[in-house]
Design brief:
2 copies of one chain form a homodimer.
Chain A (H helix, E strand, L loop, with lengths): L1 E5 L3 H12 L1 H8 L4 E7 L2 E4 L6 H11 L9 E2 L3 H7 L4 E4 L11 H10 L3 E4 L2 H17 L4 E2 L10 H9 L4 E7 L2 H11 L4 H10 L8 H4 L2 H15 L9 E2 L7 H9 L2 E10 L3 E9 L10 E8 L3 E8 L3 H21 L1
Parallel strand pairs in A: 1-2, 1-5, 5-6, 6-7, 9-11
Antiparallel strand pairs in A: 2-3, 3-4, 8-10, 8-12, 10-11, 12-13
Helix pairs in contact in A: 1-13, 5-6, 6-11, 8-9
């Protein structure tokens, strides 16, 4: 399977490392042999139809800040030029999230689908802004568009949901979808002020230097859009979500909730009538009341009730594992058709 | 897809009802058209190569206690005679659990595999006693052997685990796998005596009239064997599991645990070195510390940490939903090959 990787930051590099360390296992257990024919970052690309030497690409990225410096493979092309020049089966889109217009991921995904490539994206932006359209593009061309890593990181939330709805029907999805805000809320429960809890989350590497996407609830909203489309079959985008973040929560609110046996959590909720993100006080015994940087998703089904999945959310290595899962399912699909 | 149903008790009947009520949905969403060519119970069978009228079969089972009385289809044959006489793709094995020798399910499954039928079983007995052997038989003949309904009922524990381990490796499985014992332990936490909690579980229909399998820990052990084989790749049977039930637990033990912020739960644990069932005091904040008749399974992965899935366990309708899930995946497999 020939792959082009767009974006070579934390996730892109973790993915390359995982390919190196798990090469034999992937071949043996899933018949998956991956050849990375191009890696692209914001400064250029490394291209080799025979397959890049990933050790070398990682080394040059680390030492020179870009894959464009890799000897004999480096160049200054951008993604759209690159994918026109190589033979590839899959684009792995791992550039940064942009909620204004989804770029550069949006163009990457559209170009790849137009040229007949399957797509695995861990970038939420394009999906949050245009998921119904992108899904239709892929279906129309009978190509795979996979995005396990966008929700829950290493926790297979989407696959779990897909399995649950077989022979049943999902009526509601609720989730703690952002580890940073959940960490902050848990620490506030334990007595910290918002600012101190945020600073601690940043120190521990959970929150970005600019935590706006997290604390405004927008990151949760993006993931909720993906769940609503995929699990409930709703055609919604970020515009359709009512979003409230955690910046207005006071220690008193949390203390009050606690004394009533409740916990304040930033929930994303999608059901028939509405889709919203909002801090809510839920029972401490609710399986969704997870602590620290955990994620949790509850799915309510018509026949078999409410199922919950919990685990640690994103991290470079976890998200890279999700890319591998998606590649395996594309492989199975390629064999089928 | 032609199906033979062995065992027509609560689960078998729920399955027939689900096929009736979801006929159009299954066809539309999954291309799955199911024809039940035979249903067998302990007193005989109803057989029709053109497909049984399930409304009629359900009516006769209800009114006469056996499918053998169905006009023009009823007869006194047993399963092994029936499957030699009909053309079928799948055996759905839903007879009662027997942990002494696995019969009659054991013979049903072996015969079906020998005759080239795929198998979906919700009967744990044969798997608990001989899972490595049965899996080998099926693999050798390139037939499917599916058993989603044996663990977690409607909660897709096995599919979840299978998805988690793609591109990763499971090192430990822990679970609350029996709703009856969990209900009893939760009620004891709330002040009831063991006997009263058990009586209440029976009243609510969670516990069987003979609750021995539940409270002895054997039901948990069966499910643990299935998880250990399927998720950890261990070749184990019921003999390899050290089993302790909940009959010796005193109210004081539970009170003491509670005062320490812990909850006593009957856990099944499988890891590299050992496989055991035992009541353990776990943190109340552990995602496994579910209440009442909930089930929970935690999977520890090498790369992405500990993932947990929780939801209500078995019930006729939930388990029947699991059969449908298995049939859908067999359908996808038939299309593939």
């Amino acid at each position: 399977m020939n792959i082009v990787v767009a974006g070579f930051g934390t996730v892109g590099q973790s993915f390359a490392q995982l390919l190196l360390s798990h090469k034999e296992l992937l071949k043996k257990a899933y018949g998956l042999v991956v050849k990375v024919v191009a890696a692209v970052d914001s400064k250029g690309a490394a291209v080799s139809q025979r397959g890049l030497d990933l050790e070398l690409v990682l080394k040059y990225k680390r030492e020179h800040g870009t894959v464009a410096k890799v000897p004999s493979a480096g160049c200054e092309m951008g993604l759209t030029e690159v994918i026109q020049g190589v033979e590839a089966d899959v684009l792995v889109e791992a550039t940064h999230t942009n909620l204004t217009n989804g770029e550069p991921g949006m163009t990457h995904i559209i170009k790849a689908l137009q040229l007949g490539l399957n797509v695995v994206t861990v970038n939420k932006g394009p999906l949050a802004l245009a998921m119904p359209m992108l899904k239709e593009m892929a279906e129309h061309r009978r190509l795979a568009l996979k995005f396990s890593g966008t929700v829950g990181g290493g926790l297979p939330v989407l696959a779990f949901a897909k399995e649950c709805v077989k022979g049943d029907r999902a009526v509601k999805v609720e989730g703690i979808l952002n580890g940073t805000t959940n960490y902050i809320l848990t620490r506030m429960e334990e007595g910290l002020k918002f600012e101190d809890a945020l600073a601690e989350a940043q120190e521990k590497g959970y929150a970005e230097r600019d935590p706006t996407l997290d604390i405004s609830g927008m990151d949760t909203a993006c993931k909720l859009v993906i769940l609503a489309n995929e699990v409930l079959g709703k055609r919604v985008t970020l515009r359709d979500v009512r979003v409230e973040g955690i910046t207005k929560i006071k220690p008193e609110d949390i203390g009050m909730a606690k004394s009533l046996g409740k916990a304040v959590r930033l929930l994303g909720v999608a059901e028939e009538s509405e889709v919203f993100v909002k801090p809510l006080a839920i029972d401490q015994s609710d399986p969704l009341a997870v602590k620290y940087n955990y994620n949790a998703v509850a799915l309510t089904l018509e026949n078999s009730g409410r199922h919950t999945i919990t685990g640690k959310g994103a991290g470079g290595r976890e998200t890279a594992t999700a890319i591998i899962r998606d590649l395996i399912s594309i492989k199975e699909r390629l064999v089928m058709t």
